[in-house]
């Protein structure tokens, strides 16, 4: 079966969404299906990858997002979809591609919308007046246009459950448990960031407003005010980076930018003492799960979906530098071997094979191994 997937708000330096799309595409291919991904870019193009065919269509830049593009040309997209003749349509965009659910229904194609963000949460952050009314209206229409709505956590599903959406399915994402592993701990890498006796903190995220990347910087400031010899490494890029560099000018913070080397990222995450993931509207938090897989506990925003993902392998924090510093200190007070083992055990609950199986079930498709249905 041909599964055509559409995604917007993706850039060459995208993190979690691109990882999820790649892993699911590779899983679909391994399960005996044809995966095709359509994304926006500066120029049109087609490439064959281990995750399936990737078709890039021209899409304009979204101002102020640090490189995100969107597909806006509906007429040409309709023609492309008609040419591709999908057996299933999977849409990873809550906004500009919602209309494709109606296209699929008009063609008799089973469709799925994957909720990678909380519409209710984003609207409350950036347009609080009337946010609930607007998000309910848009979520209700999305659920009506698509055959299935997939949410990766119960927290993400809440805005649909409140509406009594009948076609809602919860399927967690996964983590590469081989690449992100405690064995990647690298003392030589640690020495390049932290002196002996210093605590190494890491923040791995896109540096955009909804991720609240200023929280780790201010948590570091509070820890050092208390006399904790901590340093911070920030892996990620985005529109907030210049402001963050200015904010951290008097602190021991290293900004690495977007880390394209996934093995280097795995070593960094496995080497840190504690990671901080403060995004309040995260619906899953793949980077936090990669930290856990490397044996590093995570401090997360209490109001996000991440407490559901990290379990007892980290701590949920209230907002503000004092709360985050308290949570970091509490984790550091745990026996190091114990806290690292707890982190790894929690991550092992989330593997990509199980996630692929769940997505295929949501598509009502079999996982074909050697020509047999599993």
Automatic annotation (TrEMBL):
Keywords noted in UniProt: Glycosyltransferase, Transferase
Gene3D superfamilies: Glycogen Phosphorylase B
Pfam families noted in UniProt: Glyco_trans_1_4 (PF13692), Glyco_trans_4_4 (PF13579)
Keyword set includes Cytoplasm: no
InterPro entries on file: Glyco_trans_4-like_N (IPR028098), Glycosyltransferase_grp1 (IPR050194)
Keyword Transferase attributed: yes
Ranges where the Glycosyltransferase subfamily 4-like N-terminal domain occurs: 15-174
GO molecular function, one term: glycosyltransferase activity
One annotated GO biological process: carbohydrate derivative biosynthetic process
Protein name: GDP-mannose-dependent alpha-(1-6)-phosphatidylinositol dimannoside mannosyltransferase
Organism: Planotetraspora thailandica
């Amino acid at each position: 079966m041909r599964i055509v997937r559409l995604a917007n708000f993706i850039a060459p330096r995208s993190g979690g969404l691109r990882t999820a799309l790649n892993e699911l595409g590779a899983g679909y291919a391994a399960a005996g299906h044809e995966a095709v991904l359509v994304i926006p870019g500066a120029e049109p193009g087609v490439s064959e990858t281990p995750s399936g065919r990737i078709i890039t269509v021209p899409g304009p830049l979204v101002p102020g997002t640090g490189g995100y593009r969107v597909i806006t040309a509906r007429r040409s997209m309709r023609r492309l979809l008609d040419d591709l003749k999908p057996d299933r349509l999977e849409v990873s965009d809550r906004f500009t591609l919602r209309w494709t659910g109606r296209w699929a229904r008009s063609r008799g194609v089973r469709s799925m919308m994957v909720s990678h963000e909380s519409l209710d949460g984003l609207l409350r952050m950036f347009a609080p007046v009337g946010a609930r009314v607007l998000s309910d209206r848009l979520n209700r229409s999305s659920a009506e246009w698509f055959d299935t709505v997939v949410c990766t956590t119960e927290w993400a599903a809440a805005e649909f459950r409140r509406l009594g959406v009948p076609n809602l399915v919860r399927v967690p994402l996964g983590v590469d448990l081989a690449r992100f592993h405690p064995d990647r701990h690298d003392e030589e890498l640690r020495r390049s960031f932290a002196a002996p006796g210093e605590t190494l903190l890491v923040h791995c995220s896109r540096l955009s407003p909804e991720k609240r990347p200023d929280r780790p910087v201010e948590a570091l400031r509070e820890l050092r005010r208390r006399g904790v010899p901590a340093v911070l490494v920030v892996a990620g890029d985005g529109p907030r980076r210049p402001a963050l560099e200015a904010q951290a000018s008097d602190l021991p913070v290293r900004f690495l930018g977007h880390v394209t080397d996934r093995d280097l990222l795995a070593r960094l995450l496995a080497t840190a003492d504690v990671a901080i993931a403060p995004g309040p509207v995260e619906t899953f938090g793949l980077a936090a799960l990669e930290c856990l897989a490397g044996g590093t506990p995570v401090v997360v925003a209490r109001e996000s979906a991440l407490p559901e993902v990290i379990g007892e392998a980290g701590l949920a924090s209230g907002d503000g530098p004092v709360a985050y510093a308290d949570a970091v200190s509490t984790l550091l007070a745990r026996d190091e071997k114990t806290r690292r083992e707890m982190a790894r055990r929690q991550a092992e609950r989330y593997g990509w094979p199980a996630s692929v199986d769940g997505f295929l079930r949501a598509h009502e498709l079999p996982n074909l191994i050697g020509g047999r249905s599993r």
